[in-house]
Specification:
single chain, eight-stranded mixed beta sheet, two-stranded antiparallel ribbon, 22% strand
Length: 298
């Protein structure tokens, strides 16, 4: 998960309130990994920017060994506490410098809603170093923006609050555009560096900003592939409170009302809703990007 190394992140809230990924997602990644080589190994799975280990725990049944990395001590501590019986090794390390790993030692690298924190060129270079020639890189995630199926008038309200520089827009990390654009920047870098089998899937098909791209065309999924996050207005509020922009706002203005609370109140008014526990039909913007190292590495 995306974490950064900011003190205002509350790791326990992050662990409790962040969405989980679809149980089928690991299977999709492994099917891609072994499509051209059914014998492709699953000895070492590496979850980079693991945060509290949400996706690392999903990898455990499928790999001999799972390692999760992050730069946040508090996130890793929470990940270890949440691991239970899952034998995951957690290592404090930046994504661009995984020097504790040997060259060509990793079978699958996953990045769950974390790649927008990285230096893309340096991470792709390091991923190429540690991946086996038959390995797979899977970058995926969600932007936190969504389409309200029954209340489409809410869509622009959310985008305005989160993206307008006069609102929360100026408080996001500089990599926000990467995830909002459906990891198109990574698609571009991977092509330039001759990675192969690049497959980028977006959902909903018309939601990702700037898509479909004629230069780096994605596959438009008919249903979610990354997550099914069922929410009420209250769950939405709790989730948005874990985002980096809201966390920074609260840190800067501790005496003001939480902007996630204000936003949900505005959305409910626009939707004519009165029950904060009403179940909502929401289509979350999400992307799944998978690829293999350049053939020259084989």
């Amino acid at each position: 998960m995306a974490t950064g190394n900011h003190p205002q992140y509350k790791a326990t809230a992050y662990q409790a309130k962040r969405p989980r990924y679809k149980s089928s997602l690991v299977g999709i990644i492994l099917a891609y990994h072994q499509h051209n080589n059914p014998a492709a190994a699953t000895e070492l799975g590496l979850d980079v920017a693991t945060g509290t280990g949400i996706f690392a725990r999903q990898l455990v049944p499928h790999f001999t060994k799972v390692v999760g990395t992050d730069i946040s001590k508090s996130m890793l501590q929470t990940a270890r506490e949440a691991a239970g019986d899952n034998p995951i090794e957690y290592v404090e390390a930046p994504s661009e410098n995984l020097m504790f790993l040997n060259d060509r030692s990793v079978d699958v690298i996953t990045v769950a809603t974390g790649a927008h924190w990285f230096n893309p060129d340096e991470f792709v270079r390091e991923a190429r170093r540690v991946l086996k020639p038959s390995g797979t890189l899977a970058i995926f995630g969600y932007s936190g923006l969504a389409h309200f199926v029954d209340h489409p008038q809410c869509d622009d309200i959310v985008r305005h609050e989160f993206l307008d520089p006069n609102k929360l827009g100026k408080l996001w990390s500089q990599g926000l555009d990467i995830v909002i654009d459906g990891y198109r920047r990574y698609h571009e870098i991977l092509l330039q560096n001759k990675w192969v089998g690049i497959k980028r899937t977006i959902y909903p098909g018309t939601a990702i900003r700037g898509e479909p791209s004629s230069e780096y065309p994605p596959i438009r999924a008919q249903e979610p592939v990354v997550m099914n996050f069922e929410v009420t207005w209250r769950i939405l509020e709790d989730f948005w409170k874990t985002t980096s922009a809201v966390s920074r706002y609260v840190d800067m203005f501790p005496d003001r009302e939480n902007p996630a609370t204000v936003l949900v109140r505005e959305l409910m008014a626009a939707a004519g809703a009165s029950d904060i526990n009403e179940m909502l039909r929401v289509q979350w913007e999400e992307t799944l990007l998978m690829c293999h190292p350049p053939r020259s590495d084989m």
